[in-house]
Amino acid sequence: MKALDPGVARVLKRLHYPLEVMLTCVRWYVAYPLSLRHLEEMMAERGIAVDHSTVQRWAIKLLPALEKAFRRCKRAVGKSWRMDETYVKVRGEWKYLYRAVDKEGNTVDFLLRAGRNKAAAQQYFEKSIQQNGAPETVTIDKGGANLAALHAVNAERDTPIKVRQVKYLNNVVEQDHRAIKRIIRPMLGFKDFHCARVILSGIEVMHMIKKGQMKDFGKIPLSPAQQFHSLIS
Predict the structure, then answer these.
(1) Domain segments of the chain: what residues?
(2) Nearest alpha-carbon partner for 200 in 212, 213, 189, 211
(3) Which CATH superfamily is domain 80-182 in?
(4) What single-letter DSSP state applies at residue 212?
(5) For residues 155 and 128, what is the distance between their CA atoms, to the nearest angstrom?
(6) Where are the beta strands (DSSP E) in the chain?
(7) Which bin fits 47, alpha (ψ -120 to 50), beta or left (φ > 0)?
(8) Radius of gyration of the chain (CA)
(9) Among candidates 193, 100, 101, which has minimal Cα distance to 149?
(10) Which residues of the chain have pLDDT under 70?
(11) Beta strands in 74-136 (DSSP E)
């Protein structure tokens, strides 16, 4: 058996269910439109007694390590990005999930912020560039905050990023938002910002795996479920 990812191994020291059970519950939670109580019922049907709050605790503990492992084997994205933000409810208030995809529809990156302004958008661009390299072109909507953020980013660069404000070209990222929102909907909002950030990262990772954005190091292609579970090793 392969050695566990060190980050996952540290988390597992404090969790006492079989690893396969925990990973299956967490994967189902971020892959399908299910509530925690749905998962509690589904596991009970399989003879496994687990409280819905325990499943949430597994997700909060495991997903950051799994996201870190995924980023090490994420495929490179294209140099033409479509960026937009969508709404996510946290403790009854709307927060903003910044996201971008390349022209092929591959997810570039994501970032949950409390505000929708130049500072939040600039944080998103800086994170995305650090993780994925700089794009040649970014397409945004007509909003002024995203444009101001890109101008601030370009002020620090020798080669500026080309900016396009063309609404219809952003349809691909707006459509991609729907896949994320479909998973979030049964959760009925998040209790706190940290929980929202962690769960959304897991949803995004699983979404990227489904889109084929994880490098395949084996001779036999793995299913999305197998790819998710392989992140532990």
Answers:
(1) 6-73+214-230, 80-182
(2) 189
(3) Ribonuclease H-like superfamily/Ribonuclease H (3.30.420.10)
(4) T
(5) 17
(6) 80-90, 93-102, 107-113, 137-140, 162-165
(7) left
(8) 18
(9) 100
(10) 1-9, 11-15
(11) 80-90, 93-102, 107-113
